[in-house]
Amino acid sequence: MQFTVAIDGPAAAGKGTISRALAREFGFAHLDTGLLYRAVGAKGGNAVLAAQGLTPDDLARSDLRSLEAGEAASQVAAIPEVRAALTAFQREFARRDGGAVLDGRDIGTVICPLAEVKLFVTASAETRARRRWLEAGEGAASYEDVLRQVRERDARDMGRADAPLCPAEDAVILDTTEMSIPQAVDAAKASVAAKLAELQGQKHQ
Ligand code: C5P
Predict the structure, then answer these.
(1) In this structure, which residue's CA is closest to atom 1 in ligand 1?
(2) Which of 13, 18, 64, 179, CA to CA, is 20 to 30 A from 123?
(3) 149-203: pLDDT as tens digits
(4) If you classify domain 4-203 with CATH, what class do you get?
(5) Residue of 74, 101, 122, 158 with the most ligand 1 atoms within 8 Å of its CB, for mutation
């Protein structure tokens, strides 16, 4: 069975948590596509060559989750040739047998425009910055610094010419500002379950 769940949205909106929960619930494979861009940014040097030659070892680096790696990722992600070099891998992953969840910025709009389920997970910049700041722990950047970085990253991701961050026309918008994690996860599960039931119903008609 091929079944793709595309999850897009800005940094720290809850995409990762929701994606992992969906993968666990429905037995789908999960690809955090942000890691691809983080690995390209962390490699340094020529970003296009780095993207074309990305290896599993590059994705296993322990420093990819840092704020700096996110910043570097957002810069290389604006280069069209970098995005092009990563497209085929993501599309193949999406159509693997058994179903797949991909989370990123352009999954529902560019990588998998025919995904069976598209979710756009968002939250206010302040809420997202608070989550990132709490995650990073004491001694890391101040809340104000994190909020500034979140806003800068939003502006870059939404303003770039190639594959800007925006919801697909047919995406379900999930605003997690006022939601708990279980509430957001339940809403996402309901969307996937409804689509699976619909496809199942069509098969039996
Ligand atoms: O989701 P994450 O914070 O790991 O993504 C890091 C950066 O990679 C984003 O800010 C964005 O610029 C870029 N990205 C992208 N397209 C994706 C996933 C991530 O442009 N599908």
Answers:
(1) 34
(2) 64
(3) 999 999 999 999 999 999 999 999 999 999 988 999 999 999 999 999 999 898 8
(4) alpha beta
(5) 74
